[in-house]
Amino acid sequence: MAKHLLRRRELLLAGAAAGFTIRLPMVFAAGKTSYDPGARFDLVVSEVEYRRNASGRSLKARIYRPDGAGPFPVLLDLHGGAWNAKDRHAEEPFDRAIATAGAVVVAIDMTLAHQAPYPACVQDANYAVRWLKLKAKTWNGDVSRFGVFGSSSGGHVAELLSLRPHDPRYNALPLLEAPQLDAAVDYVALRSPISNTFARYENAKALHDAVMIKNNVTFFVPWETIHESNPQEILDRREVVTLKPLLIMQGALDTNVRPAAQTKFVDSYRAAGGLCDYTIFEGCEHEWVAQPGPQTDRAHEMVKAFIARHINI
Question: What is the CATH number of domain 46-311?
Answer without folding.
Answer: 3.40.50.1820
